[in-house]
From TrEMBL, chain A:
Assigned protein family: Belongs to the WD repeat EIPR1 family.
PANTHER family membership: EARP AND GARP COMPLEX-INTERACTING PROTEIN 1, WD-REPEAT PROTEIN
Name listed for the protein in its UniProt record: Tumor suppressing subtransferable candidate 1
GO cellular component entries: EARP complex; GARP complex; trans-Golgi network
Organism placement in taxonomy: Eukaryota, Metazoa, Chordata, Craniata, Vertebrata
Transmembrane segments: none
GO biological process: positive regulation of endocytic recycling; positive regulation of retrograde transport, endosome to Golgi; protein ubiquitination
From TrEMBL, chain B:
Chain residue ranges for the region called Disordered: 1-39
Lineage top rank: taxon: Eukaryota
Gene: VPS51
High-level lineage: Eukaryota, Metazoa, Chordata, Craniata, Vertebrata
Organism, scientific name: Gallus gallus (Chicken)
Subunit structure: Component of the Golgi-associated retrograde protein (GARP) complex. Component of the endosome-associated retrograde protein (EARP) complex.
Keyword S-adenosyl-L-methionine in record: no
Location of the protein in the cell: Golgi apparatus, trans-Golgi network; Recycling endosome
Protein known as: Vacuolar protein sorting-associated protein 51 homolog
């Protein structure tokens, strides 16, 4: 079987919530939350067997409501948080809760998929994030690389920082901040920066991107009119502390240096409809993944603004070690291994396996060359970075 | 030289003497040794001596011994002799050269020595003279110092006297002031100089007024100036002053410190009187205003352009002049800044406008429109110049006046068109009723119709061309917002073209409807036929032709800049409706699976199957530059946005029904703007399916009700 072919998995329900199992670094595992107003919603645990190109799934029931956002704990494989809609007497409220999955599913199951679907198991509720005073929950972020005890949730115009205590069975609101301004302000999404000792987050509301310090809960920068229309998603460069990517309804993906926010560093305009998701690869930050409601997933190589050395660079240390004595000959030495064609910023691939709007794309936490995308019709597609590019980056 | 050579030979080596002997003896047996020796000898010597050649007679290393040896050993006797002769000649030449040089230079040296000697003598004499000069100069400077000390006192006294004299002269001129003032201030003399003089003397007089004699002078000049002021005032009231004199007069009065408010008043009333006179002169040309309007007024003496010309050159330019001089005279003085000038000017301009309006009203006939346009243009330009000086003088009134005149003219053209049409009809009737000579057919109905319609159309075109003059690019008022927009649409398109067509219809119907009840003869049937045919033609082609013509001649709309694109499915409105009725029969089926709980995946399956057969829709696809393509792009973006928004909502029952109605409405009306109606259909289907999914209580509205609502809209 050809190695680069995509693997497709279909859910029965519509879905827009996807996350890798962050704490798992060995197996490739994704969690998908479904959206159905009339049936019990589910969380699918998708295991991908890289060697055999086979998908194993386990289904957990999530009976409280349809899932709008899902995120996994970075410390405990079994813990995850969801934002879901609850309907009570004609009113719809979005709540958030922290859950634990059954122990035997944490590291995947090796049962045959048919059996596991027949006897579905249920999530164990750890705690609710009480939002009665704060409004609808837009998303929940875990402290990156933390011990899984700190989370931040965005509810309408509030940023809420929670401490999870007593093995996550109790959520205590430790601090909060509200965005004040004209009109009804609502956060659409946010990301927690892995840099600066995890003291910064970025949020998006309307066309503005804002940075916050989690210690003082104060705004530290603001990118007004970051996009012409609504900003849909953000992501931090995992290797360059001041770099931030954003995407929005103007079909663009923009890259920002948060020290100078007057102009984006780069802008990509490859999609033909709203861009819902943008993700940096966790290790090779030149690889950018974007998903859009034009039903496409685009993988771009933004090498010029990545942490990778760009262009022609000869390492001087190496030189001095090996060639100190051979200074004269240096000019005539042919070194094929050092001359590497510099890559240009470019679109590497456009993936067209989806037939409906793609609302989520995520890199695997275990394999840096693998990613999943989820479209509204419930189709999950697992793809790999093209092998040629992979070798180019590695070698 | 021979001796020298001989003496040299004594010191020669053995080989050398041998050769000498051989030469001397003349025996030839040893001769072969000569060349050998010559060959070896010098070369050996040269090797020892290294590079400098001692044998070179002109070289620095010349050694006579070596030279001699060399010559003697190398040359034969003949050669030696000839060389001796040459050398002797050269030496003589050198000697003589040296002598010449010596003589020449000796002479020069002698003369130089002479000169130096002479100089020495001269200088000795000069030194003595210089000493004399120095002592003389000392004596001169001493005596000069003495003289100046002696004269100093006198000089001071002289300067004092000069000062006194200047003062006396000033006093004299001061004393003379009243006389001069009287002379210049006398009627007909030069009051400006008097003023100048008075202004200069006034400060001094005021300063010294505590001295009785000066007081007298001041009083006297004061009274003179008061008299002058009175005369000037009297002059101010004189009607014959032209504006320039008036300004001068007021300026002088201001200098005399007369109260500016009064002057301002006087100035305005004086100027007002003049302007009034000009307006009156203009009015005199107009016939007395006749409120009844029945009397047939005689045609005005001059044409409208002439009238406006005169008005603007006399009245408007004088008003400009007046405003300018008022500004320069009274700017910053108390009692002038309270809009007095503005009020004054606006009453006058209002009157002017009235006059112009009355004059315009006299333009009864159709006259020469270009003349009218030019007159209005001139009026407008002049008015603009005035408005720059006086912004409050009634800009709107002026613009309104022009607009009114233009509208009036258009209305008149409409009446003219109507009259023309009636006239044509009259001709037709006559032609129909005329007795025909037997055997000869009169003009056929088609001919009559063609004549009628072509002459009416021609007339209409001519009228449009005339009206277009109002919006010509070189006409200043065409840039007014009224002429850019409302005039074209309201006055020309609606008020002239459309109104004419309506009237034509009414008239034609009038012929058909009115029986002979009023005693008028009923219209002959042939005429009715002809009119009917005319109306039919108008409906089919003429009206749209006329309107297009109008729209083209007057500013075109944006839409006309783009060509129509190609539509893939061009169905007519009615067939579309028929189709929608057909499709409605299966429309409810689309919702059916969503409320059968037993089959949760059916909708999903259905939509997927639908997608299998539909192409992917590129939302932001490239757009061509034609209307349809642009509109299709907009529609796709809008519908996709609607879809995404619906998917983000949770709908109740009525929300779903609202989306259902909206979708149906869009389905009915949107297709005609899109290049491919399948795109619209596909997107609307997706919206409907998503709405059903996002609905908590999916009870769709009865389809007939949906249709009813949409039809009513």
């Amino acid at each position: 079987m050809e190695d680069d072919a995509p693997v497709i998995y279909g859910l029965e329900f519509q879905a827009r919530a996807l996350t890798p199992q962050t704490a798992e670094t060995d197996a490739i595992r994704f969690l998908v939350g479904t959206q159905s107003l009339r049936y019990d919603n589910q969380i699918h645990i998708i295991d991908f067997d890289d060697e055999n190109n086979i998908i194993n799934k386990n289904v957990l029931l999530h009976q409280v409501g349809e899932i709008w956002h899902i995120s996994a704990s970075p410390a405990d494989k079994g813990v995850l948080a969801t934002c879901y809609n609850k309907t009570s007497d004609g009113k719809v409220v979005t709540c958030a809760a922290v859950w634990r999955m059954p122990k035997e599913l944490e590291s995947g199951s090796h049962e045959s998929p048919d059996d596991s679907s027949s006897n579905t198991q249920t999530l164990e509720l750890l705690c609710h994030l009480d939002n009665t005073a704060h409004g609808n929950m837009a998303c929940v972020m875990w402290e990156p690389m933390g011990d899984g005890k700190k989370i931040i949730s965005l509810a309408d115009n509030n940023i809420l920082l929670w401490d999870l205590q007593e093995s996550s069975t109790k959520a205590v609101l430790s601090s909060s901040s509200a965005l004040e301004g004209k009109g009804q302000l609502r956060f659409t999404s946010g990301r927690w920066s892995p840099h600066h000792n995890c003291t910064q987050i970025a949020t998006a509301n309307d066309t503005t991107v804002r940075g916050w310090d989690t210690r003082s809960m104060r705004q530290i920068y603001s990118i007004e009119n970051a996009h012409g229309q609504l900003v849909r998603d953000l992501d931090f460069n995992p290797n360059k502390q001041y770099y931030l990517a954003s995407c929005g309804d103007d079909c663009k993906v923009k890259f920002w240096d948060t020290r100078n926010v007057t102009e984006p560093v780069k802008t990509l305009e490859e999609h033909s409809h709203w861009v819902w998701n943008v993700r940096y690869n966790h290790s090779h930050d030149q690889l950018i993944l974007t998903g859009s409601s034009d039903s496409r997933v685009i993988l771009s190589n933004m090498v010029s603004i990545s942490s990778e050395p760009f262009g022609h660079m000869v390492d001087d240390d190496e030189l001095s070690d090996q060639e100190e004595q051979h200074q004269e000959e240096k000019i005539f030495v042919y070194r094929p291994f050092r001359i590497k064609e510099p890559l240009q910023d470019s679109v590497i691939a456009t993936y067209e396996e989806h037939e409906d709007s793609v609302y989520a794309v995520e890199w695997s936490s275990a394999d840096p060359w693998l990613f999943a995308s989820l479209s509204y019709d419930g189709r999950l597609v697992i793809n790999r970075v093209p092998r040629a590019l992979k070798y180019h980056i590695l070698l | 030289m021979a001796e020298v050579e001989a003496a040299g030979s004594g010191t020669e080596t053995g080989g050398g003497s041998e050769s000498g002997n051989a030469t001397g003896s003349g025996s030839g047996w040893r001769r072969p040794h000569g060349p050998l020796q010559r060959y070896y000898g010098p070369s050996a010597a040269e090797a020892a001596e290294a590079t400098p050649d001692p044998a070179d007679i002109n070289g620095p290393h010349f050694d006579p011994e070596v030279f001699l040896t060399k010559v003697r050993s190398e040359c034969r006797l003949g050669e030696l002799l000839s060389r001796e002769a040459t050398l002797g000649r050269e030496i003589r030449a050198l000697d003589s050269d040296m002598q010449t040089l010596l003589y020449e230079n000796y002479n020069k040296f002698i003369s130089a020595t002479d000169t130096i000697r002479k100089m020495k003598v001269d200088f000795r004499r000069m030194e003595a003279e210089m000493d004399d000069l120095a002592s003389n100069m000392a004596a001169i400077s001493a005596s000069s110092a003495r003289v100046s000390a002696a004269l100093q006192d006198r000089h001071r006294r002289g300067a004092q006297l000069a000062g006194v004299q200047a003062l006396l002269r000033k006093l004299q001129s001061l004393v003379e002031v009243p006389g001069r003032l009287r002379r210049w201030a006398a009627p007909g003399a030069d009051p400006a100089r008097a003023l100048h003089c008075y202004a200069r003397a006034r400060a001094v007089l005021r300063h010294y007024r505590h001295l009785p004699s000066f007081r007298a002078i001041e009083d006297e000049s004061h009274s003179i100036m008061a008299e002058l002021a009175q005369r000037l005032r009297a002059r101010l009231r004189d009607d014959t002053l032209d504006p320039k004199e008036l300004t001068e007069c007021v300026e002088m009065l201001l200098q005399l410190e007369e109260p500016p408010e009064e002057l301002c008043e006087e100035f305005l009333s004086q100027a007002g009187a003049r302007l009034e006179a000009e307006l009156a002169a203009l009015e005199a040309e107009l016939p007395p205003s006749d409120p009844s309007g029945t009397a047939s007024t005689p045609p005005p003496a001059s044409d409208i352009l002439d009238f406006v010309d005169r008005g603007s050159s006399a009245f408007v330019s004088n008003l400009c002049l007046l405003a300018a001089s008022y500004r320069s005279l009274f700017e910053g003085r108390p009692g002038s800044g309270d809009g007095r000038l503005e009020a004054f000017a606006s009453t006058l301009t209002t009157r002017y406008f009235e006059l112009l309006e009355r004059r315009l009203a006299l333009e009864r006939g159709l006259g020469d429109t270009s003349l009218l346009v030019r007159a209005l243009d001139r009026f407008h330009r002049r008015l603009r110049a005035l408005l720059e000086l006086l912004p409050a003088a009634g800009a709107e009134a002026g613009a309104a006046l022009v607009a009114r005149a233009a509208r009036e003219r258009v209305a008149r053209y409409l009446r003219a068109l109507q009259t023309f049409f009636l006239g044509c009809l009259g001709d037709v009737r006559q032609a129909l009723a005329a007795p025909r000579p037997p055997g000869k057919d009169g003009p056929g109905l088609p001919d009559l119709l063609a004549t009628l319609s072509s002459s009416v159309l021609g007339q209409l075109k001519a009228v449009l061309a005339y009206v277009q003059l109002f919006t010509a690019r070189d006409v200043a008022f065409a840039s007014l917002p009224y002429f850019k927009g409302e005039f074209c649409v309201e006055a020309v398109r609606e008020g002239l073209v459309v109104a004419f067509v309506r009237w034509l219809c009414r008239t034609a119907r009038g012929f058909a409807d009115s029986p002979a009840e009023r005693g008028a003869p009923a219209a002959p049937p042939a005429l009715l036929l002809l009119l009917a045919r005319l109306c039919l033609d108008y409906e089919a082609t003429t009206i749209s032709y006329i309107l297009t013509l109008t729209d083209e001649q007057f500013p075109p709309e944006v839409g006309q800049l783009f060509e129509e694109g190609v539509r893939r499915a061009q169905s007519s409105d009615s067939s579309r409706r028929a189709f929608s009725v057909y499709s409605s029969s299966r429309a409810p089926g689309r919702y059916a699976p969503s409320y059968t709980p037993s089959a949760p995946m059916d909708t999903h399956l259905l939509s997927n199957i639908q997608k299998l057969f539909s192409e992917r829709i590129d939302i932001f696809s490239p757009v061509e530059f034609n209307k349809v393509s642009v509109l299709t792009g907009i529609i796709k973006i809008s519908l996709k946005t609607l879809l995404e928004c619906v998917r983000l909502r949770t709908l109740g029952r009525f929300g779903l029904q609202q989306v259902q109605v909206d979708g149906h409405y869009l389905q009915l009306y949107l297709w005609r703007f899109a290049a491919d109606e399948r795109v619209v259909q596909g997107l609307l289907d997706e919206v409907a399916a998503s709405a059903a999914h996002r609905c908590l209580d999916p009870v769709p509205m009865e389809h007939s009700v949906v249709e009813l609502i949409c039809e009513r809209g």
